[in-house]
Structures are given as structure tokens and as C-alpha cells.
Amino acid sequence: MAGPVRQPIDISSLEKYIEKNVADIKTPITLKQFGFGQSNPTYQITDARGSKFVMRKKPPGKLVSKSAHKVEREYRIINALQNTDVPVPKTYGLCEDDSVVGTPFYIMEFLDGRIVTEPHFPGVSPEERNEMWHDAVRTLAKLHRLNPASIGLSTFGKPTGFYNRQINTFTQLGDAQSVAKDVETGQAVGKVPRFDELVQYFSDPKSQPKDRGNPIHGDYKIDNLVYHRTEPRVIGILDWEMATIGHPLSDLSNLIVPWTITAFDTSRRNSHPAFHPFNHPAGLPSRAQCISWYRDVAGWDPAPEIAWGTAFAMWRDSVIFQGIAARYAVRQASSEQAKKVGEEMKPAAEICWKLVEQAKEQKSLAAKL
Fold first, then answer.
1. What keywords are assigned to this protein (predicted)?
2. Cα–Cα distance for residue pair 233/139, rounded to 1 Å
3. Residue ranges of domains in the chain
């Protein structure tokens, strides 16, 4: 929900920009800011007629990461998808002039719909629950079947080698994070369990999925979707900050993670008891059903490669958890919550190893057929 502005901007300067560049917005405007947790400050604009819009901008001040907060990239992919069947907010323009509100920003449509934070969709009918999942999967498949060049995204990312680049990045991160020492105890964070074995497995071309290069969201999950207020359909995908050209298996593996983790342990972070086979609420589809729905629209079958993809996703998560543990060790992240999240490194790696064993077994059986 939008509330008081926590990071003020020059409204009169913004109004002057709007008057010259965005005819659909009538000044004067009022401004609210959306909730905490947004890496890029996000504001709700209400114009003189009561119409609502959204503005996303880079954070003020010096940025810690040069690769993060690229609102220009967010705008580019949302704008590229305007005339496709992938539901995204309508765009109204990108401003790269820092003098207007202090940083680059873009303006898009405000989607008046439902954002659901629990992926088992509590409080809806079984039929609606099933169709809401179906449309989430269908929407992702529509994105992945697009040819980047056909929508002006041929230079949005490298067309090949996505997973090898990810392996290089996360291997370097894992090695660097492992040596961080706790400022009080002097104890090192340590390596992700079976780290070297896992890197060797994922790096083996014989085990890797067929290389693909499609537009990917980078963080595709239920709470990054906006659903119609009364109908079980997606009206928009949000938070495109991590979008690139990459392997579609990564998005699909991220979407089905509630089934992946819950199958091993219902107490782990990102697990959901409702996704345990004995707890499925009526209408919640199976993991296999989601993969089948995806195949029907995307035009390729991820089933033979999904075991590798979900294992890789868990390895990546274990390195991310290690990074949080490293930041806690040096007290860059000092909360008790950060400590708890960092402790997920070893359980995540254990699940990853079990998934790798399953992937190996699946590949071995397929080779015998």
C-alpha cells in the first residue's frame, strides 16, 4: 500500500516534466510512496482527475552496486513488451535527466489489482486457485517464447552461456564469502557444504541443459504478479530489475520452488506447508501439472532438465544465504533476522545435494531408455 513519502522529491520539478512530456497525466499531482522493501523507491502519482500512476526511480546518493537499481533496464524491457501478449503496465516515459528528481526515473500505469503474498492463494475457491496458478505459468511461458530480437532486445543480454556465467559469478562469491570472520568469535563463515563437488557437477557440459537465450524476469514468483480484482488472471508482472536474456529454466525453477523445498523440509525458509503432498489445499496444482502447462505454451519441454534447474537454483540460494551470513559476521547486517537467514546456508546446500543426486539418477535412467 502507498503511504507517506519517506524519500522526498521536488514535486514542482516533476510536474514541469510531466506537463512537457506526459499528456495523459494532468497536473497538479499528489505523491505517496509504496511500502518498505522496494530496492528502487516507488511512488504513486495521483493527478488532478484522480487517475493513478506509478513512478520508479533510482535511490538517492552514491550507490553501493553499479549493476543494481538500473531503472533504465526495467523500463526498456517493460516498454519492449507493450505490444506482446505478456501482461505488463503501460509505460509513459523514461527520464534520464538527474536534474528533474535527482536520479533517472520512469512512469508507468498503476495496476489496480490483487497482489498475493502466499502462493497457495488462501481465501479463494479451488477452481480459482487452480486457474490463478495456471495463468501464472502460462504468463511466464508467453514471456519465454519471445525472440529477443523481434521486440528490440537483441542487445539486452548475451544470447548464450547464461548458466556458465552464473556458475563463474557464484563460484567467485562463494570463495570470497567463505573467509569472512565473525567480529566477535573470529570464526570464518566457511564454505557452502560440498561446494567444490557442486561446482564441478554444474560446470560439466554433459550434465547441463541445452543452452537457450530468451527474455527472463530474474525473480519470477507469485508475489511479483498482479491479478485482476475479481478474475483469476494475471494483469501485470512487476519488479523487472533482474531481467536479462538468459535460460528460461531459471525462471521456471524459481516459480516452482515451494514444491522443491517443501518436499524435503517444511520448516525451511521459502518452504510452504500447503505444498506438502499431504497438505495440498483443493485446487492447488501439482508440480508436474505446472511443468506440463508451461510446456504447452512455451513450445519446449523442460521436464528432462528441470531436476538440474531446481538443483542449480538451490545451489545459488545457498551462496546467497552464505552472503547474508558473511555480512552478519562483519556486522554489515546486524539484525537477528539476518543471522537466522544466514544459517539457511547449510540446509539449502543439503537440499541441493539431494536434488543433484536425483538429477543424476534421472539422467542415468533416461540414458538407458
1. Kinase, Transferase
2. 9
3. 2-110, 115-367
- Please state, as a whole number, how many other Cβ atoms lie within 10 Å of the Cβ of residue 185: 8
What confidence score (pLDDT) does residue 340 get? 92
The reported pLDDT for the residue numbered 84 is 98
The owner of cell 495456471 is 134
The count of C-alpha atoms lying within 13 angstroms of the C-alpha of 113, restricted to the half-sphere facing its C-beta, is 23
pLDDT of the residue at 333: 72
Q: Say which CATH superfamily domain 115-367 falls into.
A: Aminoglycoside phosphotransferase (APH), C-terminal lobe (3.90.1200.10)
> What SS3 string covers the chain?
CCECCCCCCCHHHHHHHHHHHCCCCCCCCEEEECCCCCCCCEEEEECCCCCEEEEEECCCCCCCCCCCCCHHHHHHHHHHCCCCCCCCCCEEEEECCHHHHCCCEEEEECCCCECCCCCCCCCCCHHHHHHHHHHHHHHHHHHHCCCHHHHCCCCCCCCCCHHHHHHHHHHHHHHHHHCCECCCCCCECCCCCCHHHHHHHHHCCCCCCCCCCEEECCCCCHHHEEECCCCCCEEEECCCCCCEEECHHHHHHHHCHHHHHHCCCCCCCCCCHHHCCCCCCCCCCCHHHHHHHHHHHHCCCCCCCHHHHHHHHHHHHHHHHHHHHHHHHCCCCCCHHHHHHHCCHHHHHHHHHHHHHHHHHHHHHHHHC
* Residue from 326, 352, 348 nearest 190 by CA: 326
pLDDT confidence of residue 332: 83
Length of the chain: 369
pLDDT given for residue 338 in this prediction: 86
CATH architecture of the domain with residue range 2-110:
2-Layer Sandwich (3.30)
Give the chain's residues under pLDDT 50.
37, 63-65
